[in-house]
Amino acid sequence: MGGGPGGLYAAALLKRLGPEREVTVWERNAPDDTFGFGVVLSDETLGGIEHADPVVYAALRREFVRWDDIDIVHRGTRHTSGGHGFAALGRRTLLAVLHERCRDLGVDLRFRTEAPPAAELATAYDLVIAADGVHSATRGTHADVFGPTVTPHRCRYIWLAADFAFDAFRFEIAETEHGVMQLHGYPYEAATEAGPGASTVIVEMREEVWRAAGFADLDPAQSVERCAKLFTDTLGGRPLRSNNSSWLTFRTVVNDRWSHGNTVLLGDAAHTAHFSIGSGTKLAVEDALALVACLQEQPDLPAALTAYEAERRPVVASTQRAAHASLQWFEELPLYLDQPPRQFAFNLLTRSRRVTHDNLRLRDARFTETVERDFGCPPGTPPMFTPFRLRDLELRNRVVVSPMDMYSAEDGVPGDFHLVHLGARALGGAGLVMTEMVCVSSHGRITPGCAGLYTDEQAAAWTRIVDFAHTRAPGTALGVQLGHSGRKGSTKLMWDGIDEPLPTGNWPLVAPSALPYGPTSQTPEALDAAGLAAVREEFTAAARRAADCGFDLLELHCAHGYLLSSFLSPLTNHRTDAYGGSLDARLRFPLEVFDAVRDVWPASRPMTVRISATDWADGGTTADDAVAVARAFAAHGADAIDVSTGQVVPGERPAHGRSYQTPFADRIRNETHVPVVAVGAISSWDDVNSLILAGRTDLCALARPHLYDPHWTLHAAAEQGYAGPGVSWPVQYRAGSRRPQTGRTDGPKPRLSLEAEAGALPGAPQARPFP
């Protein structure tokens, strides 16, 4: 159902691998109707096509336009990055190739024919493939089974074409009186003696800009003419053309299930990914390859459909995360316009997190080195090993060991475990090592194993740890995170049952409102004026002790649903007094605590604040709120905002994935111009370099990687061949500063690749006989 590339390719493969099969394609449009212009396919996708059907691959290869460069035009300056490797062709050409292949194989193509409902087809056919697009009627009819979620986004865009071939993939930014507009363009037909070629041109802008510019009131022809005038320099004064094009709002489609009985979703019916990473046709073709392969490999249809979804779902989810990051970057484009020109270009190129600093260095070392030089990296210095200053504290590199609760204290006193744990990370090379959340009172602990800083004995134990770090790991800063558990306290150790109340020995809990965290949690007491004053004093007393211990930095924990965090979220703060209601009112008590701590914390030493930038729950803190919260703390003297998310309410639905929290830090940094610490599934030094060089964060905090490898930063330096002042190996470990050999890697490489003729794929190269 649906004669787009995914449906046609699935039909051709099914027929090729089973000539006896009866395969029918219903397509409601005419054979040459299409509503796009060019299609971009990756080398990976093309490799799959080549192996599955060399005939189709050969036909496509003859039509490809290939290019390596990406041009980014911003404020009249063009920056070019090479080595990217694209292949594109016209959508009509692609469809014509697939039509011909289907006809040659005997597929029944029924154009200008609406498909019968999937339920009706399912009774007559063994398999129904619903490749009926983003507005899939099949998906809608059986929504109770497929469980679709369709999310509209904030930009309008229109597909157009120019009758000449760009010489690169081109992004151009237009800053108009109505707002920012952007062009995405790429060639899909090469210039020849017969003609100038052709390019796809997509014009995109935020909804409010689209309306302010009057596009909502223009007819299609006027819109096309207006777009051509906006980008007249890029087009060389040439016109744009349309093919029944209209302004669209991109929608991300996700389904809980992809199959229902013998009906299966494919391509945009199952999932969509934003066009800015060129993925729609690619995903649909890869779906077709996987589906047909599973039908060949599995013993029956249910097993095949299960295997298809199991194989494709993680690939699609990864692509959708990358596409969402790219989409979000373009939605937030105004935030980056004032970045230095080459940093802006680097930021755009790495927006989806699929192209990284190291990857871009391989593609175009000269461009990457120029961006590094503009950023201030000395020669041979990765961005992560450049220094960063907060007040009088200069961090020698941008790596932070994130706060991680160890639940291993006795009566709040950190012991030998903490000395070894934090001491090892200090020796490991990070610029800043943070303690776990150090509780400001016994009743402010999360568990009986939580460390505190409310007694002199605890302070003495912390002094021992700080002295070790400063003496044995000179150049490493040690930071303390102060917090109060609030309604999430009096629970078991994490490995005994996270967030579960203690079976005995519970202590009373306090919170902004008398709301338990979970169904089995204690109900806290809502703090009154005396209680608020007492908590404030507990924080200031702990801060005084922290200063005496010699900590270099203090962080106020206002995240993850603990006491100060629960004042900030409307889901946990239901107060009707001056400390509840509006965001300003909900900020009042956390700011009072911050001010009290800042007053007693030495002026030369920096203070940061950790926040949850979203609750990942309806009605909770939003990204807009997070910007306002960051601004408020910065106005009160916070030197940086440590941007985490969630853990405020148990029903949250976070969008997990690599670096998934960094967009919140990115927005805060570039909208408020306050330094930020990015956290959340940052796991590689390549990611750290990428985020810092793109200007999305100032520091990167890593937790689990430092549990896996206490010397993560030292090893990152060794793996990058860096031995400068941004990191220092302890003299005792210096002999291990080179990566150990892991086995022989210099053996002779194979010169010939021979395949048995009987086992070779059709069209594959055969072994040549000796002369």
TrEMBL record:
InterPro entries on file: Aldolase_TIM, FAD-bd, FAD/NAD-bd_sf, OxRdtase_FMN_N, YqjM-like
One of the Pfam families matching this protein, by short name: Oxidored_FMN
Domain (NADH:flavin oxidoreductase/NADH oxidase N-terminal): residue spans on this chain: 384-717
Disordered: region residues: 733-771
UniProt GO MF annotations: FAD binding; FMN binding; NADP binding; NADPH dehydrogenase activity
FAD-binding domain residues: 2-320
Listed name of the protein: Salicylyl-CoA 5-hydroxylase
Species of provenance: Streptomyces silvensis
